[in-house]
From TrEMBL, chain A:
Protein name, as recorded: Codanin-1 C-terminal domain-containing protein
Signal peptide: none
PANTHER family with a match to the protein in the record: CODANIN-1
Domain Codanin-1 C-terminal: 759-870
Species: Ficedula albicollis (Collared flycatcher)
UniProtKB/TrEMBL annotation, chain B:
Subcellular location: Cytoplasm; Nucleus
An annotated GO BP: erythrocyte differentiation
Name of protein: CDAN1-interacting nuclease 1
Keyword Cytoplasm in record: yes
GO CC, any one term: nucleus
Lineage of source species: Eukaryota, Metazoa, Chordata, Craniata, Vertebrata
Keyword RNA-binding recorded: no
Classification via PANTHER family: CDAN1-INTERACTING NUCLEASE 1, SIMILAR TO CDNA SEQUENCE BC052040
Keywords assigned: Cytoplasm, Nucleus
Length: 1168, 283
């Protein structure tokens, strides 16, 4: 006899029956569901010690959210569970009824003791089997097996092993291939609630066979108990509503009819096998010891139907509860199933034993198999390895195992998150996009300050003494003041929003460290193969393991904290407003993402679908993040520390009912439902709503929103992709649990409607990323690991998309419209990739076309304008603006060329790109159509832009060039000289001449010595100087390292040097060479200096690329040097003048005019 | 070359109150023969500038200016050929070029009966021939030529050195086949703060990915590095991501502490460069 058979026989009938009942008694639903949930919580309150208590739905519709404190909401930190939100009776779950436990323990010492030993035996067997990683665990436990009594008696207070934070459970690690299932050892729950229990465990029994079948065969007809305890149910319901009682009676009746229970007998096995137990170990749940099976089955069906019909506020909360039951540790002494029937009749306990709880849990899990099978792989593994499941329902076990083996849904909550800056976008961030220089400067500065703050936060926020507001508050406000002064908030808000997305879209709110990429050393050590292992290990450490229950309050984890605190510290109305604008804009943009359905007949869809999913995931995560911040800011002003006092502030309600929300989420929600894309919209709307203030939910607008969301849950479509559905249910369940007020409007009459299927875009990774609290389920299971395994075949649950995006355009009359329609029609029967390719090509080619025009035509025009401007600027002191306008007008006509060139460009490039991107096999006709459409679209885009903007573009570029031209520092407008500067190195130049800087430095040294002051005997060696000039010549010839300023400086310095030479200011040490040279004096100038001068002439003439300011020789200062010189130097001066004219460095007339102007200077009356 | 903080401190301490003359430079080289000349000069220049910054205000009080001007006038009255201004600057521990500027400004103020524009003064310092007084022109020229830390000549040398190293770096990038966008191109595109080179395809240097390279033809000491981080490097990071700074004349080892965060320091062109295979295959 198998439970499953029983289930199969009955499930269809009873569930349908219940469903009908529920439907017909819709007025009852309202109270029945909460009643059922609370009933279950109450019943199980004593047995559940694992994990946090799960809140039930309270039937009291007026008890909304009264316990929620404002500060908790404001900071979002509150770790206090929402459990507190619920009616006080649920809190019973936390404490154990010591009295009852004690009484029972003593009353059945003999029986339960033996059971305990048996259980312990099992546990020890597990321990022996398990090659556990947790050495400390097993070590401790082994010891206890050697000295059992000591261990058992040890005061529980010493043992904190069931503290899951200090001893995080290990993930199950056993492989299927092992013949012997390896199991993890569980922490022994020793809770303080049982200090008085008597440790009477006996360790004599040997490990029993662990085969599930053995349990089954050992236990005699479990249904026997059901019959004994028949009638329980009604007494349980005695304090409940009459209607429910009636219903349950009918249910029970129907169950009884469907299978007649046998005679109530107490199987001897149970009794004999039982020993008194106050086990510190996990009780070994035994299917044979289940009592009230029938009632439990009935409850399981009822409960499952509620879940299946989405009548519970949060299905995952219920699943969590069920798993709690499954993993309950059996603290009650009644787990031997030996309790008197009388107690059950009068004492309303169906869940008093672990066996019953597990039985119930396994039944529910069986009913909810579809949901479970869609959870992530690790979770499935834990379930498949759960020995309670395998012993209570081998079929479910088998199904789970198959689901696990076929599952590909690996989930990692530790996605790599490397923090990067928002890259500088020259198109939008450059000066021309700002109204003034000052605005541009301020923006540049704010950007840097912003990152500085971010870095500071990154460095310090984890330190205890560091306080955001204290350290950064004033800086942020100063920044805001600057932004206000230049009306730059919108730009900064955009940067802020971009950085927010960049840093926080990861699953756990963005990493808190900058360097998330693995260390090079670690990489070298492990090799990249082991990197994934390393990642898992890291995840193990980083992702919190403590079980906090599946309903965490909204929070701002990781880097999000920075952004939240920034907003709070800034406290700037302008900034918030612009940020809201920016957030809304981005939300609308992302929410408009096209969800493309993929035709599975197409071979390439796999990749496309993957891309699509990726795009969807990115959009969804970004949307949720943005929406959370939007909600945060929008409801920030109304945030109150406390729930508004007793009576609702009517005036506030009336007023706020008049205002419209920034973002019409109701409209967006409706649209999304209509367009079958609520899978994208609902998750972010939920994030937005999770931050509402206390009053907002009572506003008409938000009432409608919540109502609509609720309706989504109740009427969810069976056709919808299952994972899509799960995501929606999970986020909505979370919201409803967060926003308790919803309970007040639950099940109000809404018109029924049906929303249809969605493109299946959600996978487990996304589901768990959006709802990290789902992994609480896994953590709960992991904390109770008992392994068992085997390998088996699998099955794949395939999700077939059925949505179709409507592309059919409306009929039109004009030819143009007809063309558009034809185009649409053309795409309609082609794979969607074709359309995207064409659109993509058009978009890119169009954009490239504009860039190309800018780089060629416009650049040419600007260059011409530059030449024109240079001439005119030199001419006279003209009005610059007018000049600019004049030149530009001249160029506009030629700008019209842009359209022609643009068209050519598109026509050339478009087809090339399309051909490359489309499959080779595309038919010629399709290809040519695609090409021409792409060209058409690209041309439209490019020429549209060009015709509208070419004039402005030319003007902008010319103006920028002109401004640069005027601003060039250090030297005058580069005219002809500039052209000269573009000389090349001589052929074969090795670029090994001394650097210009070196030459300036050396000449500077000579000048230094020349102008003094000199040290005693300080001279300049003639040969060295000659050599210096030779190197200078080389330096000047090689153009590689030359820059204009250096060359000009060199020119100036050499002129100075010449002046100093002719006035005998350079203390040359002649050495031997001079005596050799002295006989062959040129032009009668018998001085070595003339040799140097000749070198200089040649350098000036041949080597300089810039004009040499030789006229400086005639400056008052330099002529002044001469006036102090002796006659000999005047000869040198003449030689210099000759040289200048000879080398065509100066014309004679120029020299004459220079000399002439010297006469006008005041000269000392006595000259040499 | 990289210096440890201790090595650097030793040099900096020696530089205490050295005057910025060619003689001082010679002494410095004798004292630290193992260090490269340009490194020493760079450190010297930085240390001297720090000292000048500290005392700048002191020399610009109205009283000080008046004193200097009177001392100059008296000095040239006695002997116009003597290095009056230069000696004065050395005596009061101030940069000769800056002293020349003070006196020139004061001189023009008296002559023109108005406060002269900064551009005019700068222009006269660059080309003392424009100075209407011959004696002052000589004095000023003597100051600017002799100053090895301030003045138009030094500025020009610094500029040239910077330019030369940029060219060197460009050559090395070309040699390594690393395609880049140079600063002037970036400016033309409208970028506001731009490093010398942005790599079109990022590479990994010593295991760190870099997007840009900045060439600094100076020694990286604490204060200049902090200032660069603040004004340039972090700004580049903010815009382009992690990058590499090459201090051609070395830096204090301990400053290379932002590698993990994305600012890498080197004193030469790196040898350990890993490129993206894909982009290399195309070459």
């Amino acid at each position: 006899f198998s439970i499953d058979v029983f289930k199969m026989l009955d499930l269809g009938v009873s569930v349908n029956h219940i469903h009908d009942k529920l439907a017909s008694l819709s007025s009852l639903q309202k109270d029945f569901v909460p009643f059922l949930l609370n009933f279950l919580r109450e019943q199980t309150s004593q047995i559940l010690t694992n994990g946090p208590s799960t809140p039930a739905k309270t039937p009291n519709s007026k008890a909304h959210g009264s316990q929620r404190t404002g500060s908790e909401r404001r900071t979002g930190h509150a770790s206090s569970s929402r459990v507190q939100l619920f009616s006080p009776r649920t809190s019973v779950t936390a404490s154990l009824p010591v009295r009852r436990g004690r009484r029972r323990g003593s009353s059945s010492v003999g029986a339960s003791g033996r059971q305990g030993a048996r259980d312990l035996g099992c546990s020890l067997a597990e321990e022996e089997d398990g090659k556990s990683d947790s050495a400390s665990w097993s070590g401790g436990r082994r010891k206890s097996s050697g000295a059992p009594l000591v261990s058992a008696r040890s005061p529980p207070s010493q043992l904190n092993l069931n503290n899951l934070e200090e001893f995080p459970p290990m993930g199950a690690a056993s492989g299927w291939a092992k013949s012997k299932p390896s199991r993890r050892i569980n922490p022994t729950p020793v809770s303080a609630e049982r200090p008085l229990s008597k440790p009477k465990t006996c360790f004599t029994s040997t490990p029993v066979s662990r085969s599930p079948a053995a349990h089954w065969s050992a236990g005699s007809s479990p249904e026997a108990f059901a019959a004994v305890q028949e009638g329980n149910l009604s007494s349980v319901m005695s304090n409940s509503l009459q209607e429910e009682r009636e219903m349950l009676k009918k249910e029970r009746y129907s169950l009884r009819i469907s299978f007649d229970p046998g005679t109530p007998t107490k199987p001897s096995y149970t009794r004999s096998a039982s020993l008194p137990a106050e086990s510190h170990l996990v009780t070994c749940a035994n299917p044979a010891k289940v009592s009230c099976k029938k009632q439990l089955e009935c409850l399981a069906q009822l409960y499952s139907s509620c879940i299946a019909e989405n009548l519970v506020p949060n299905i995952f909360l219920e699943l969590f509860f069920v798993l709690q039951l499954l993993t309950s540790k059996g603290t009650s002494t009644a787990e031997d199933g030996d309790s008197d029937p009388e107690i059950n009749v009068s004492g309303r306990q169906h869940f008093e034993s672990v066996h019953n709880c597990v039985y119930f849990a396994v039944r529910v899990l069986d009913y909810q198999f579809e949901i479970i099978s869609h959870l992530e792989k690790g979770m499935l593994k834990l379930l498949a390895e759960n020995e309670r499941i395998s012993s209570f329902s081998p079929t479910l076990h088998k199904r789970l195992r198959q689901a696990y083996e076929s599952s590909t849904a690996k989930v990692s909550l530790l996605l790599p998150c490397s923090v990067q800056s928002v890259s500088f976008q020259p198109e939008t961030d450059n000066r021309s996009n700002f109204p003034s220089d000052r605005a541009f400067q301020v923006f540049k500065k704010q950007r840097d300050i912003f990152y500085e703050l971010l870095r500071e936060w990154e460095d310090n926020h984890e330190k205890t003494v560091w306080d955001f507001e204290r350290v950064l508050g004033s800086k942020i406000r100063a920044m805001m003041a600057h932004l206000s002064a230049t009306c730059n908030h919108s730009r900064f808000a955009r940067l802020f929003q971009k950085q927010l997305i960049q840093m926080c879209k990861g699953p756990i709110g963005g990493g808190a460290s900058w360097g998330d990429t693995p260390d090079q050393d670690v990489l070298n050590m492990l090799g990249s193969d082991n990197l994934s292992r390393l990642k898992r290990l890291q995840e193990r450490f980083v992702v919190p393991q403590s079980i906090r229950g599946p309903c965490p309050p909204p929070s701002f984890p990781g880097c999000q904290q920075f952004f939240r605190d920034f907003i709070l510290s800034a406290g700037s109305y302008q900034f918030n407003q612009h940020l809201v604008d920016s957030l809304c804009l981005k939300i609308l943009e992302l929410n408009g993402l096209t969800l493309v359905e993929h035709d599975h007949s197409d071979g390439e869809t796999d990749m496309e679908e993957q891309d699509e999913k990726k795009r969807f995931t990115v959009a969804l995560l970004s949307l949720r993040l943005l929406a959370k911040f939007l909600g945060f800011i929008v409801f920030l002003p109304y945030r109150t520390a406390e729930q508004p006092a007793g009576d609702m502030p009517d005036s506030a309600l009336v007023l706020r009912n008049q205002t419209l929300p920034v973002l019409d989420i109701l409209k967006l929600l409706r649209q999304s439902i209509r367009d079958q894309r609520s899978i994208l919209t609902i998750p972010w709307i939920v994030e937005y709503l999770s931050l509402v203030d206390h009053v907002a939910p009572f506003l008409d607008y938000y009432r409608k929103v919540f109502g609509l969301l609720l309706l989504m849950v109740l009427s969810e479509d069976k056709e919808m992709s299952f994972l899509n559905k799960l995501l929606i249910l999970a986020v909505l369940g979370w919201l409803f649990q967060v926003e308790l007020f919803l309970l007040c409007c639950i099940l109000s009459a809404f018109p029924s409607f049906s929303h249809q299927d969605f493109v299946p875009l959600v996978d487990q990774q996304l589901l768990y990323t959006c709802c990290p609290y789902l992994s609480e389920l896994r953590k709960l299971l992991a904390s109770f690991v008992a392994g068992s395994g085997g390998k088996n075949g699998g099955f794949i649950r395939k999700i077939t998309p059925t949505a179709a995006e409507s592309l059919a355009p409306k009929a039109s009359v004009t030819q143009q419209k007809l063309q558009v329609d034809l185009e649409q029609a053309f795409f309609h029967n082609q794979p969607p990739s074709l359309r995207r390719t064409v659109e993509f090509v058009a978009e890119r080619v169009g954009s490239n076309c504009v860039k190309h025009i800018k780089a060629t035509l416009v650049a040419d025009l600007v260059q011409r304008a530059e030449a024109m401007l240079q001439d005119k600027v030199k001419e006279e002191d003209v009005n610059h603006d007018k000049l600019l306008e004049e030149v530009c007008t001249h160029l506009y006509e030629e700008g019209a060329q842009a359209l022609i060139k643009g068209r050519e460009f598109c026509k050339k490039k478009g087809p090339e790109a399309v051909r490359v991107l489309l499959p080779e096999e595309t038919s010629a006709a399709v290809l040519s159509s695609a090409e021409s459409i792409a060209v058409e679209l690209a041309t439209e885009k490019a020429c549209g832009w060009l015709s509208a903007n070419i004039a402005a573009l030319i003007k902008r570029e010319v103006k920028a060039t002109f401004n640069r031209m005027l601003k060039v520092p250090g030297f005058p407008l580069p005219g002809v000289d500039a052209v000269e500067l573009r000389r090349d190195c001589p052929p074969g130049c090795q670029h090994c001449a001394p650097f210009p800087s070196q030459m300036i430095n050396e000449i500077k040294y000579v000048l230094c010595v020349a102008v003094g002051p000199r040290e005693e005997g300080e001279v300049v060696d003639y040969v060295w100087l000659e050599c210096l000039l030779g190197r200078l010549s080389q330096t000047l010839r090689c153009r590689k390292f030359m820059c204009p300023t250096a060359e000009q400086q060199l020119a100036k310095c050499t002129v100075e040097l010449a002046s100093l030479l002719v006035s005998d200011r350079v203390p040359l040490s002649l050495g031997i060479k001079s005596s050799e040279k002295s006989p062959e004096r040129l032009r009668g100038k018998n001085d070595p200096t003339s040799g140097l001068l000749k070198l200089l002439f040649s350098i000036w003439k041949e080597d300089f690329g810039t004009s040499v300011p030789v006229q400086l020789i005639f400056s008052k200062k330099n002529v002044g040097y001469l006036t102090e010189a002796k006659q000999r130097e005047w000869d040198l001066f003449l030689f210099l003048l000759h040289g200048l004219t000879e080398h065509e460095l100066m014309r004679t007339s120029e020299i004459q005019s220079c000399l002439h102007s010297l006469e006008e200077l005041p000269w000392p009356s006595v000259s040499n | 070359m990289k210096l440890s903080k201790a090595q650097y401190d030793e040099i900096a301490q020696f530089l205490g109150h050295v005057q910025p003359t060619r003689q001082s430079l010679r002494k410095l080289k004798e004292k630290f023969p193992s260090q490269s000349q340009s490194t020493l000069l760079s450190i010297f220049s930085q240390e001297y500038q720090k000292q000048i910054k500290r005392t700048h205000a002191k020399h610009h009080t109205a009283e000080a200016i008046e004193t200097y001007y009177q001392r100059y006038l008296n000095g040239v009255m006695k002997n116009a050929a003597a290095p009056v201004l230069l000696d004065l600057a050395n005596e009061v521990d101030f940069a000769p070029s800056l002293m020349a500027r003070i006196v020139l400004e004061r001189f023009l103020q008296e002559k023109e009966q108005a406060i002269p524009s900064k551009t005019l003064i700068s222009s006269m310092l660059r080309d003392p021939s424009q100075i209407p007084d011959g004696v002052l022109a000589n004095q000023v020229y003597q100051c600017t030529v002799n100053d090895c830390c301030y003045g138009p000549l030094v500025d020009c040398i610094k500029h040239a050195v910077g330019h030369e190293h940029e060219v060197l770096l460009r050559e090395m990038l070309l040699e390594k086949n690393l395609s880049f966008i140079a600063e002037d191109q970036l400016r033309a595109k409208g970028y506001d703060k731009t490093p010398d080179f942005i790599l079109e395809v990022p590479v990994a240097v010593e295991g760190h990915i870099i997007h840009w390279i900045e060439s600094k033809a100076s020694f990286g000491d604490e204060s200049s590095h902090q200032a660069y981080l603040q004004d340039q490097f972090w700004s580049y990071w903010n815009r382009f991501g992690p990058g590499l700074v090459i201090y051609w004349y070395g830096f204090i080892e301990e400053l290379d502490c932002h590698r993990e965060r994305g600012i890498l320091l080197k004193d030469c062109f790196p040898t350990d460069i890993v490129t993206l295979r894909h982009s290399m295959a195309q070459r």
